[in-house]
Amino acid sequence: RLCASYADQCVTVQQIGTRCSGFNGAKTQKDEKYLGRHGDVIEILYGKYPYKIEFNPPPANKWREPLNEKKRSCFESDEEIEESPLTKKSKKDYCLGKMFREEVKDTNDDVDEETSRTILEKVRGRGESPVAGGSKIEVDEPVDDSSSQVHSESWEEVDKQALMIYTAEGVQSRSKVAAYDMDRTLITTQSGNVFPKDTNDWKILYPEVPGKLKKLHADGYKIVIFTNQGGLGLGKSKPSDFKKKIEKVVKKIGVPIQ
């Protein structure tokens, strides 16, 4: 979960699921929050898919010190942590909590790594990556939410349905975004199986989910959901059925979502 504040020129990073992300070369810990600044590097999965945080325009106050010169005061020891194969930072660094040192195996991939990389490259576009093999997260100046266009319901498709984007009616461009994974974060299966039996095998994971998202929307956040669906690529489910499922999930939550 990433929450950007343009006023404070920082991004709060929080691991929601069980699999570790990376923050400046270190593993994150579930439910701990980390304070990201301009130039910090986030890995969507630890050691994979690095993104560099960049504010546009860059912060005028360059207060932050080089990554390995001084640790933030939130840490209690000088113990080194496991290095990331991508960013190679040897010390614990900028965060709001302790780093997690336990190895987490990648056992829940719904889409193979090559397919994930291909789709990520298409989303990134042709811009030059600021991190080897990675991309960047840009935080632009706030927009006037009150005058933002209100979108109609629509579906967009990229590269023969390798990427599908649903925009619910009422979605607006906003300066703040609250983004979540869908499966086992917002919804789970009715059957209790790890993977759904069909497109109707789902339910809201927690009763509090719709209310929390409605409050975030009322507080000025645009709500965004991401999901990998390996069954589509393997031909086990139809795109038309998947679209119907997404539309039903959004309707059940009761808030404009993209």
From TrEMBL:
<protein>
    <submittedName>
        <fullName>Uncharacterized protein</fullName>
    </submittedName>
</protein>
<dbReference type="GO" id="GO:0046403">
    <property type="term" value="F:polynucleotide 3'-phosphatase activity"/>
</dbReference>
<dbReference type="GO" id="GO:0003690">
    <property type="term" value="F:double-stranded DNA binding"/>
</dbReference>
<dbReference type="GO" id="GO:0046404">
    <property type="term" value="F:ATP-dependent polydeoxyribonucleotide 5'-hydroxyl-kinase activity"/>
</dbReference>
<dbReference type="InterPro" id="IPR036412">
    <property type="entry name" value="HAD-like_sf"/>
</dbReference>
<feature type="region of interest" description="Disordered">
    <location>
        <begin position="124"/>
        <end position="154"/>
    </location>
</feature>
<dbReference type="InterPro" id="IPR023214">
    <property type="entry name" value="HAD_sf"/>
</dbReference>
<dbReference type="GO" id="GO:0006281">
    <property type="term" value="P:DNA repair"/>
</dbReference>
<dbReference type="InterPro" id="IPR008984">
    <property type="entry name" value="SMAD_FHA_dom_sf"/>
</dbReference>
<dbReference type="Pfam" id="PF08645">
    <property type="entry name" value="PNK3P"/>
</dbReference>
<dbReference type="InterPro" id="IPR006549">
    <property type="entry name" value="HAD-SF_hydro_IIIA"/>
</dbReference>
<dbReference type="InterPro" id="IPR013954">
    <property type="entry name" value="PNK3P"/>
</dbReference>
